[in-house]
Predict the structure.
Amino acid sequence: MTLLSVRDLSLSVGPAPILSEVSFDMAEGEVFGLVGESGSGKSMTALALMGLLPGNARVTGAARFGAIDLLAQGEGAMTRLRGRDIGMIFQEPMTALNPMKTIGDQVAETLLIHRAASRGAAREAAREKLDRVGLPGDRFPLSLYPHELSGGQRQRVAIAMAIALRPKLLIADEPTTALDVTTQAQILDLLGGLVRHEGLALMLITHDLAVVAGMAERLAVMQRGRIVEAGGTEALFRAPSQDYTRRLLAASGHRPARAARTAGQHSAPLLHVEDAVREYILPRPSALAPHPRLRAVDGVSFSIGAGESLGLVGESGCGKSTLTRAILGLDPLQGGSIRLGGSTVAVGRIMPAALRARMQAVFQDPYGSFNPRHSVGRLVSEPFHLTGRPPDADDRIAAALEEVGLAAADRHRYIHEFSGGQRQRIAIARALIIRPDLIVLDEAVSALDVRVRAQVLDLLARLQESHGMAYLFISHDLSVVRALTDRVLVMQSGRIVEAGPTERVFASPDHPYTRRLIAATPTIPAAWKEAAHAD
Amino acid sequence: MRLSLHLGLALTLAALLAAGVSLLWTPYDPAALSIAEKLRPPSAAHWLGTDHFGRDIAAMLMAGARTSIAVALVAVGIGMGFGVPLGLLAAARHGGTVDEVVMRGNDLIFAFPSLVIAILITAVFGPSALNAILAIGIFNIPVFARVARGGALSIWTLDFIRAAEVAGKGAARISAEHILPNIANLLIVQGTIQFSLGILAEAGLSYVGLGAQPPTPSWGRMLAEAQTMVTLAPHVAIFPGLAIVLTVFGLNLLGDGLRDRLDPRLRARP
């Protein structure tokens, strides 16, 4: 039976059209995927249904939810509806909860607002819901605050809040995008279980085709505010009828063409990390107790050969960022050594500029990676600080921009004029301009949409081909690491638990943790894809 | 939001204009006494009337604006000149001893009520506009240090700072090249607010006789001299009072308006 029927939903904010004629249906108790790249309008669709649009938004069309039209309701009616009939969870579990209230109060609040449940009864119900989402009472009492929980646990609390009143529809907007793969798998499991056992319908909004493939029965693909294609998940994956869907599918498993490289072990290693230890001193638990220590990096050893591409995978908190900072000479080690081409990497001015100039880095956040007040030309030429500004600096800036697929004239523009993918290209140009021997890529493509990600991966593979520098590719995304590296290290709690040629590690992982990571990574079934490629 | 910015800008410009024009021209000599003309109400000859010595109030207000603005401006300059580098230094050495020393030093200055210390300083070194400037300026230092440190700490976490570190730049260079331009908004807004507080503080010190000394005209002293005659000739007190209120009001509106305009947190990401 139809639960939600959206017809010709159009939306504009100010003069800008956001959605045009979006129509779809959802049945009771089904999982419906809404897929698209950033800016395609999938989140705005959800906000329109919830009546949470900005004040200057104009909506036309209809969204029938049972007997009522969601788009025609006043704010008062929507307030009663939200939480009771439609629940919603958001991407960022770090900010979706109120840091000043206990988790028990936050879950109970939903009940107290909508029903005249007594305080005691609401707390009992809150306990029950938290148990249901996998936060049992003995380990997660109601009196905990959000900062005492991990990201995945917070997302569970957000889900408990959303399902507290047994809504008929749950809208999940990128619920697992901010989470690690294993946590993502658990949250998706939980959501799937809720759909099966509690009979609620789930609208799963995501940019990740692999997540939808494993969850949704039906899906709609959005592009620039329109639904370009909709249908049963498997049929749509096997035989996409629209060009856009086909390109999206091709990009999601994209692997750049790379020549197989010799592992480079026989030549002298470029970077050699030996027994690296980095400890943090934590605050004293009580006034007289000694400071506890956290070993973020615990006896890590590896090396990278010249021109080699090495992957480093692990979940957040495993120590990979700390290790990266130490390799780049930004943080000191407490033990062990890092040598680059035979010279020791040190922190600050002790490290000679010429040594520092042999490695550069590309960071994750395309928005935070650039000083918004400098022109692109100045941003890209920043590493010249290490080598001294060469006489042909202008030509080299132009060449670096052209090499990453931008125009030489772009040097006069400012960073806010560029999209996320273009910004990562500029970051690569900045790393490339002094021709380092090693580029550290710290989650360099994690924030990008699938198609843009595929293009940037191609670019990285091509640049390595032509310049022969080594990559240290750090990511939590196994498919990306698999696409670009020769060898891979798997890191868990500060230690390297498995190392080996990428294909070998992915095909037959030895360590249970590696196996768990690979099993948790959502994938599009191979059979579906073959059909799509044959098309 | 827009209105407050424009109104604030208009009031501030009016005060600056009055001070600027007074360098070249005032309707009368603000120091010229004319007992025969004392306590005249506003008229065509004396726009805002005269005080108990027969001095022209409009001329005194214009010249007084110069004193107020000069004192407040230099005090803000002292605060920014010392406070911002200290704040940037503390942020660059976040969590270290230097940070701790700078911030606890700030707390120490904050711990004293500012006007009382200003009175102490002027009482020890003698009342003058210069000592008023120093006294007000010293209390601006911790304000700017805190604002600069707070703003800088949030910029230090961004990846473009990592990129600059990877490019081998030291903390001083990063602070000057990358941090300062990105916290300039905050500092400008804080500057206008401290400027208005400086004008108030100067008026307060002059009111108790510790600021600018006669014959240098000062809004605060005009107010102090007029208070015994409020029932007799209210305009003598009202106009300097109004000048202080409108200028401070204007600067606060300007500060708020600039904050709304410049604060990236209130602006949508492009």
The interface with chain A takes residues 158-160, 162-170, 177-178, 181-182, 269-270 of chain B (CB under 8 Å). The first helix of chain B runs from residue 2 to 24.
